[in-house]
Specification:
Radius of gyration: 25 Å
Distance between the termini: 91 Å
Structural class: mainly alpha
Strand content: under 5%
Oligomer: single chain
Largest sheet: none
Shape: globular
Length: 255
């Protein structure tokens, strides 16, 4: 009897010793929002039995990739809701995947929103515009969830800026998101131009001119990682704004 009792005591002691480690791992996963989603019955039903086995085996990334590929079929068949739910599921499985968030929002705000606006099933043009706005709102909510999960990537800030600029015609909100994108060291230099142009639209040409003057004096505020000659861009923008503001020749920046 002593040996079984000893084994049980050892197992209980090992389990007690592992609990702090498991708690710490769980806390880290929650803090990072990475891989902490439980495989529920509802999720198993959504992905199918075969893929559920992959989830239980720990292959979340592989399952998410397969699900993402399936979006193309939903798009061709115009199954917008199924496509939307599938994209949601992909981001649930892989909340740190920038591509899922960024491309998913693009599909909603651009592709699906346009498709529903010209759907022959719309009884009136107003109905088409209403459905279009609903999908643009979904794109905004989707990107907001993405930013909550991945606040440290420039792509989602840039994507939200594009959405506010081109779909909601809100230049001031777009300006703020483009500014946030430029703050990241790996942001491409075109984010700077996007930001400055939205400053011009929101705050006026003088504010944009002051911003470009500041950039010119600082040198290269963002390293060029996309093949753009930022000096030429700054020079061109300064000249354009000086013409627009009728800046006297003696007061213009020598660029």
């Amino acid at each position: 009897m002593r040996r079984p009792v000893l084994v049980v005591v050892l197992l209980l002691g090992l389990a007690a010793a592992m609990m702090p480690l498991e708690d710490r791992i769980h806390a880290e996963r929650v803090a990072l929002k990475y891989g902490g989603t439980p495989v529920t019955l509802a999720m198993r039903d959504r992905v199918g039995q075969g893929m559920a086995i992959g989830l239980l085996a720990g292959f979340r990334g592989v399952v998410a990739d397969f699900l993402w590929i399936g979006n193309h079929g939903y798009f061709e068949r115009k199954e917008w809701i199924r496509m939307y739910r599938n994209m949601e599921l992909c981001t649930t499985l892989q909340p740190q995947a920038v591509t899922f968030w960024d491309t998913g929002a693009w599909h909603m705000g651009w592709n699906i929103a346009h498709a529903v606006s010209i759907d022959p099933a719309n009884r009136t043009q107003a109905e088409g515009l209403k459905r279009q706005r609903e999908w643009q709102n979904k794109a905004r909510e989707f990107l907001a969830d993405g930013l909550a999960n991945i606040p440290h990537r420039w792509e989602l800030h840039h994507g939200m800026g594009m959405l506010y600029w081109l779909k909601f015609n809100d230049h001031c909100q777009a300006r703020d998101f483009f500014r946030q994108a430029t703050a990241f060291p790996d942001a491409p230099s075109y984010c700077l131009r996007m930001y400055a142009r939205r400053v011009e639209d929101c705050d006026g040409p003088q504010a944009a001119y002051d911003l470009w003057k500041q950039y010119w004096r600082e040198g290269n505020p963002i390293p060029s990682r996309d093949g753009i000659d930022l000096k030429s861009v700054m020079r061109r923008e300064l000249r354009r704004l000086e013409e627009r503001l009728n800046i006297p020749a003696q007061q213009r920046i020598r660029a």
